[in-house]
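Dear colleague,

Thank you for sharing your sequence with our group. We've completed the structure prediction you requested, and as agreed, I am returning the results in plain text so they can be pasted directly into your records. Please verify that the sequence below matches your submission; if there's any discrepancy, let me know and we will rerun it promptly.
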Amino acid sequence: MLESGIDLSTPAGWLPLVFALIMAISMLAYVILDGYDLGVGILLRKAQDASQKDMMVASIGPFWDANETWLVLGVGVLLVAFPAAHGVILGALYLPVALMLVALTLRGVAFDFRVKAKAQHRPIWDKAFYLGSVLASWSQGFMLGQLITGFKHDLSNYLFSALIGLCLISAYRLLGAGWLIMKTEGELQLQAVQWARKSLWLTALGVVAISIATPWISPRIFDKWFSFPYVLMLFPIPTVTAALFAVIARSLNRLPTRIKDSNQYGVAVPFTCTVGIFLLSFYGLAYSLFPWLVIDQLDIWKAASSTEALMVIFYGVVVVFPVIIGYTAYAYRVFWGKSTALVY
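Please find the predicted structure tokens below.
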């Protein structure tokens, strides 16, 4: 039994929790999996020549489209399981959501058209893929900023959300650069190390900005952060996050020498540690917001559909969710390893 009187032993109590967990896992999977291929798209403009761009596209080719399945699942769960919150959240975020959808569509069109385009037209689609990646990343960061600030419509919150959008672009760049360090070799791999270095500290700024802003939005969240004994439970998160940033910086300083000696030891460290930062940041955010879907307005039980509707949806999710996990794991197993040159 929770303090709010919700009995977790009944379907009305545990079903919203299950769907909140599925939605959280879906959005986390999307941010990490589509985050690195958005990052590669953002970095595409930095490539020296067409062959490097082809290699970058080849590194995400088998994965990028399927990665967006997690976004569809997460938003779908929000729609069918928490319709009241869906109306409030997407109503408040109508414009950035529309921008994100246009950007993702542009990415998809550009990705497929560059395959068929003649050599002289391919740079146009490369620029379109880059633009779609930047706009999609920024809009997602803007939406995150709005969620943290409780969808308040004033200049300071808009500026904060815009800053988080820029920081998320940098975080995706860091994730994409880490992916390229793992998946490529030679000059492109060395360039990816430099790209990761330039993205590291703006990513850290985004983490710090969110960490400072979140507890000040709501007294309830402030108490969860700074009251005893909760402060002891939360303390390891910033400590480990800072340690991961230090490990990434140390690894990026050592990798160039190893790569030049054809030594691939440690090439997975930047990507793996960046994923760890995303996981810890997501956990901290979930810890702060739970059980609210809209801060201090709608919790998961108030926003949930009827118990009967949730039970019907639950049976469908029990089938679909493991299939998506299995397909994703199988795709990464089949296409793992260094990327090869892209041939049309």
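Summary note from our side: The chain has a mean pLDDT of 87.

Kind regards,
the structure core
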